[in-house]
Design goal:
Largest sheet: none
Shape: globular
Radius of gyration: 22 Å
Strand content: under 5%
Number of domains: 2
Number of helices: 19
CATH superfamily of the largest domain: MFS general substrate transporter like domains
Mean pLDDT: 82
Distance between the termini: 21 Å
């Protein structure tokens, strides 16, 4: 019996490794492309505006289909949807790598985003099914949190290496063997838990269409707001459509027999609070990843490869905290206190970046902030995910996963748009006043870092004040059992 239990435990951790590899492939893709954009622009003669669609096409479908992907997983089986998502993402990566025109590349990127949305939406649910013991689940979520947290910065490093050593096509083609391996091992290791009986009859088509359209229009407005202006007729028109679709969706959900998103979910405090924290935390994370990369590259003069290496210490620290420290803290104190402490450390790290000078050094002006952010992210990400999932019923875990991923996606997109706008406005004002270009640029990034620190501090305060602490730290596991 002991041997069988040991085998079963080993199987669960192998399954987790496969899940994390699939998710890492998706997370890497969010940033690995950014490093290769200049090369893609030269090869396909993209304009500055059209080049943005290499990223935006992915964001539109990735954010738009998260909720639908999670709900389909609940209805038809999470493993089945995971396999479909990995298959689509792998084929789309092949299409991106072989693309011979601008239109083909953008279309393939949109398909990549669709596959990535499905994978992201059901991966958390599969982890919750695999690990029902409180201690094991905390450790498993720590591993998953590490993959999600540091994948973006690894993508910057890997993108630089592949683009410099080979060419930009390989940032997509490298996904092919990984995707095939994930598919093969998923068939062998992931639990084939069926969906709800008669699932097709219970799919809320009207709700699915309206919520997907709402999210896609919202992301479209966000990613174009800075470029064409937030007060332009187009942006206002799209935002008005988002508002109208949102109202329509709420009306549909209150009347549907089997709603796409049962609104009662948001009466569960931990689900609601964790998603609010997720929005604020994602905005702060984007301040870290993107603004610090721009600061190092455009102000300090680092190469893309040096930027990737600068993130390495924080990645290693994040790994240590996510894979060991965070799980022990959650088991001892529950989700609330580690979440608040981690986010507070991240806020302090961003405050250090908010004072980074134009002629800063890595050891004094970059590394201390990176260390605090690595510790904070490593500690906080696990309890955020656990809090968001712990109150969901087993037959709604895919939807809960889709909701928390949507919160991170929307928070990141909104945060990046707002941070970029603040940085650009501050830089423009200083340039108009006669300030040196480099100093104006650095000061703009400082303003963005300060705003990111405020977002992280608000997330910490929200979690500390409003997150419900169970009677015992291991209680979240019992909800799913």
């Amino acid at each position: 019996m002991q041997h069988m239990a040991s085998e079963s435990r080993a199987g669960r951790w192998r399954a987790l490794a496969v899940l994390c590899l699939g998710v890492l492939m998706i997370v890497l893709d969010m940033t690995i492309v950014n490093v290769a954009l200049p090369s893609i622009r030269i090869d396909f003669r993209f304009s500055e505006a059209s080049l943005a669609w290499v990223v935006n096409a992915y964001l539109l479908t990735s954010g738009g289909f998260l909720l639908l992907g999670g709900r389909l997983g609940d209805l038809f089986g999470h493993r089945r949807l995971f396999l479909i998502g990995i298959g689509i993402f792998t084929l789309a990566s092949l299409a991106c790598g072989l693309a011979g025109s601008r239109a083909f590349l953008v279309a393939a990127r949109a398909l990549q985003g669709f596959g990535g949305a499905i994978v992201d939406a059901v991966a958390l649910s599969l982890i919750m099914q695999l690990f029902v013991d409180g201690a094991e689940r905390a450790r498993a979520m720590g591993v998953f949190g590490f993959v999600c947290s540091c994948g973006g910065s690894i993508g910057v490093l890997l993108g630089g290496l592949l683009t410099n050593a080979l060419n930009w096509h390989w940032i997509f083609l490298v996904n092919i063997p990984v995707g095939i391996g994930v598919l093969v091992w998923s068939f062998k290791l992931l639990p084939a838990v069926g969906g709800q009986s008669g699932g097709a009859a219970h799919l809320d088509i009207a709700g699915a269409v309206t919520v997907t359209a709402t999210l896609m229009f919202a992301i479209y407005a966000i990613v174009n707001g800075n470029e064409i202006g937030w007060r332009s007729a187009q942006t206002i028109g799209v935002l008005a459509a988002v508002a109208a679709l949102s109202v329509t969706f709420l009306v549909i959900e209150t009347r549907a027999r089997a709603p796409m998103i049962p609104l009662r979910l948001f009466r569960r405090r931990n689900i609601t609070i964790a998603n609010i924290v997720g929005v604020l935390w994602a905005a702060a994370m984007f301040a870290w990843f993107f603004m610090s990369a721009l600061y190092m590259q455009l102000v300090l003069g680092y190469t893309p490869l040096q930027v990737g290496l600068a993130f390495l210490p924080s990645n290693l620290i994040m790994a240590a905290c996510s894979l060991g420290v965070s799980a022990r803290l959650v088991l001892r104190f529950g989700n609330r206190r580690p979440l608040a402490a981690g986010l507070l450390l991240a806020a302090i790290g961003l405050l250090l970046f908010a004072r980074a000078p134009v002629h800063g050094s890595f050891a004094i002006d970059v590394l201390p902030g990176m260390i605090l952010l690595g510790i904070g992210a490593g500690i906080a990400f696990n309890p955020v995910l656990l809090a968001a999932m712990s109150d969901a019923d087993p037959n709604e875990s895919g939807l809960a996963s889709g909701i928390v991923n949507t919160s991170f996606m929307m928070g990141g997109a909104l945060g990046l748009a707002l941070l970029a706008s603040v940085a650009a406005h501050r830089t423009s004002a200083l340039l108009a006043a006669g300030t040196d270009h480099l100093a104006a640029l650095g000061n703009g990034y400082q303003a963005a870092f300060l705003l990111g620190a405020i977002c992280a501090a608000l997330a910490a305060l929200t979690g500390a004040l409003f997150l419900r602490t169970p009677a015992t730290p291991a209680t979240p596991a019992a909800v799913i059992m």
